[in-house]
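User: Structure please.
Assistant: Input sequence and predicted structure:
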Amino acid sequence: MVRYVYEFTEGSRDMAGLLGGKGANLAEMTRMGLPVPPGFTVSTEACRAFLATGAEPPGLAHEISGHLTALEEAAGRRLGQAEDPLLLSVRSGARFSMPGMMDTILDIGLNDASVLGLAKTSGNERFAWDSYRRLVQMFGSTVMGVDPALFEQAMTLLKDLRGAPDDLHLDAGDLAQLVETYKGLIKYETGEDFPQLPAEQLRRAVLAVFESWNGERARLYRRREHIPDDLGTAVNVQTMVFGNLGADSGSGVAFTRDPATGARGVYGDYLSNAQGEDVVAGIRNTVPLDELSRLNPAAFTQLCEHMEALEAHYRDLCDIEFTIEHGRLWMLQTRVGKRTAEAAFALAAELVDEGLISADEGLARVSGDGLARLMFPRFDTSAFGAPLTHGIPASPGAAVGAAVFDSAEAVRRAAAGEKVVLVRQETNPDDLPGMIAAQAVLTSRGGKTSHAAVVARGMGKVCVCGAEEITVDPQGRRFTVGDTTVEEGAVISVDGSEGTVYPGPAPLVDSAVMRYFETGEHSAGLVDAVARAMRQADGVRRLGVRANADTPEDAARARRFGAEGIGLCRTEHMFLGDRRQLVEAMILARTDAERERALDSLLPLQRQDFIGILEAMDGLPVTIRLLDPPLHEFLPDRTELAVRLAAAEAHGNPPSAHDAELLEAVNRMHEENPMLGLRGVRLGLVAPGLVAMQVRAIAEAVVERKRAGGDPRAEIMVPLIDTVEELRLVREEVEQVLAEVSKASGVLVECPVGTMIELPRAALTAGRIAEEAEFFSFGTNDLTQTTWGFSRDDVEAAFFSTYLDKGIFKVSPFETIDRDGVGRLVEIAVAEGRAARPDLKIGVCGEHGGDPESVRFFHGTGLDYVSCSPFRVPVARLEAGRATLTGTEASDSR
C-alpha cells in the first residue's frame, strides 16, 4: 500500500521531491534539534494522486487520522477540544519555493466552542477571537471559494466604524462581531455554514491546498519560473504556535545575510503581536530584525545562534520564518533563500573565502541570467535632482515606467508595448500578472520579506518596498508624496539598489560590471566577485565561446568581453548603406559585363571590411557566412515603388526610368515566402560571380593581413544547405578562387569550408554533408522556424502569448532551444556528422548561443563552441563553466 504521510522526525532535506521543500526542511531542523513545533507532512505523491482522479486517495484519511492521534497524545490535547484545544496550521510546500502562490490555513480546530476554551486557557479573549476570525477568513476564501475582497471590505468597514487605524485597535467584542459577519458572508455566498467539526476543517484544508497547485496564480508563477506542472505540492500539518498573544509575542522573517547584497549582518523583519502571514502580507509595517534585541534579548540571541547553525549546515544563505509565543522562540521554516544577482555573486565569493564551499560550488551558486542583470545600466543620480521618496531597497536595478495602480492595468499597458511600474500599498499573490508585466514594483508598506520583495527578487524585478511617505490611492489611480501627486500614466524611475524613486525618466549609465568587461579593471566588492566567478568558469569550461560580429568595432568589443573568435560574420550587413546602390546595379545588370562591373565595385569594399575584422580577431578564428538573405531585401519596398510611380503619373510627370526598372526587378523576384525561397546557397548557385566575389575579398584580406605580419584565421561558411551536392558545387568554386589568389599573391591562402545546419533535411543527412564540410554551425533561428513551421516575424506577435498562457510553451522556442524537437535534430546531426568525420568542428551561432539553458544543452550535446552577440559573451562563458559542474541546481532561484 502506498504511504502518503511522514512525521517530521522521519524526513530530511534530501527528501524535497517527496516532502516538498518546506516539509523536507522542517524535518531537517527537527533532526538538528531546533525548536520546531511538531507535525507531519502529507507527501507530493498524495497530491498527484488527488489531482489525477479528483478524489481523496484511498487510505489518506486513515493515515492522517493516525498521525493526528500521535500528535494529540504527544501534546496532551485534542484537536479542537472545548477546553485548551490543540490547533493546527495547514501549509503548502512544493519542491521549489513558490512564495504566496498556494494556500495556507491557520488555526484549524477553532469553532464556536473551542474559541471560548482558547480564551480561557490563554487568558486573552482578544487573542482567541482574533485567531478565530483569521481561520474563518482564510477557510472561507481558500477552501470555500468566497471572494477575499468581501472579508477585507467587512474588516475595513468595522475599522472605520470604530475609528481604528489597524486591526490591533479592534477589541475582543469587535473581533467576535467580525467572526459572525464572516460566517454570514460564507453562508450567503456558498449556501453552507462554516464547518464546526475540526476533523472536517482539517480534511477540507488539506484537499484545498492540493487544489491550489492548479490555481491560476500558481500556474502563472510556474510558467514564469519554468517549474514543471506535474510535481504537485506537499502539505505540512503543524501544531500552531501563536505570535498574536500580546506584546511579548510576535512573528518574523530572517535572513542569515542580506538577500539584496549578500553582506553579513542581521537582516529581516519583525512584527509584534502578529502571526506570520501579517509579516509577509505587509498589512502593517514591520520593524528591523535587530529591534528584537531590545524587545526580547533572550529570543534574539537564540535566533542568531540558530541562524548561524543553519547557515553552516546548509552552507548557504538561509531564509527563516519564526514565531515568538510568550517569549519562547519557535522555528517555523527555513530554506535556501532567494537572493538578487548581486547578492548571489558576493555571497558565493564570501562562502568560498570562508571555506564553507569550494570554488566550483561557488560557480554553481551564480548564473548567467544573474550576470546579465548585473550588466544592465544604472541610474546616473548625479545628473538628477532629489528623489521623490525613499523606501527599502528590496531588489536592485534601475527601471523607468508609467505608474499604474492595479495588476490588470499593468498587463494591459505592457501588452501594448508600454513600460510600467506597479504601485500598490502592498502586493498579494493575485498581483502576480501585474508584477510580471511591470518593470518595477513600488509599495508603501512592507519590508524586505514582504510578498512584493520576495517575489520581485525571485523574478529579478526592481523593487522598492515600505516607501512610507507615499499615500497610494488605488481608486483615484494616483499616489501622493507631500504636496506632489503622481497620476496614473506619469513616468517615474525606481532605483531598487538605493531604495529611491524619482519623478520622470532618470538618465542611465553603464553598470560597474559592464565597465569591468569593457576595460578589465575592477576593485573589491561585487565586481571582484564577478571577476572571480568568470576566472573559475573559464578555468573549467570545455565549451568555447565566440561572438556574432559584423564590424571591426563589434569584433574588438567581443574580444574585450572574452570571445575566442567570431562564430558568425554576416556579409549581408556589409551591403547596406551607401553600398546598396552597387547591389542594385548587380541585381539590375542585364549582361555579364554589367554584373561583373558591379561585383568588381563591391570587392574592395568587402575586402576592407574583412581586413578590419581579421585584424581585430588576429590569431582567432573568424567564420564568415556567405550572403544569406534573398536579394529583394536590398531593393526598395514594392508598394513604395508602385506608389512613387503612380504619384508621378498622377501629377503629369514622366515616371523615373530607374524606379520603373527597380519595380520590374522587384516584381520579377517577388516570392510569397522569401525565407523559404531564393536565398543562401541557392542564391550563390544561380547568381553568377556572387560567391566568387565574396571569397576573393576574404582571400585577399587574408593575404593583406599575412603581409602585415598578422595571423588571420578566416573560415568560409555556406548557408542554408539542404543537400551535399549544393555544398560540393560551392566548395569547388571556393577552392578555385582560393587557389587563384594564392597563385597571384604568392601567399598560401587556406580557409576551412563548412556549412550552417539550419534546415531539418540538413540535420537528418548530416553524415553525408560532413563528407564535404570541415565544420558545422547550427543556425538555430532558422532551424527552429523550419522545424516548427513558424515564421518568426509573424507568430511571436500572433499567438505566442496565448501558447505561453495555456502552457503549450514553457518558454518561447526562439528564446530557449526546444530540446525535444530542434534539440533532437542537433543531436542527430552531431552524431552522424562526427561518425563521418571524427575531427568535425561543430558550433552554434543562433540566438540560443547566448541563452543560459541552451548553453548547458549544447555542452551536453558535445558541441565545440557557442557564438552569440558580444554583450552575451560573458553570460555564455559563465554558463559554459557551470555546465561542466554537477549539482548546478544549487543556484536554482526557484
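Residues 887-894 have pLDDT under 50 and may be disordered.
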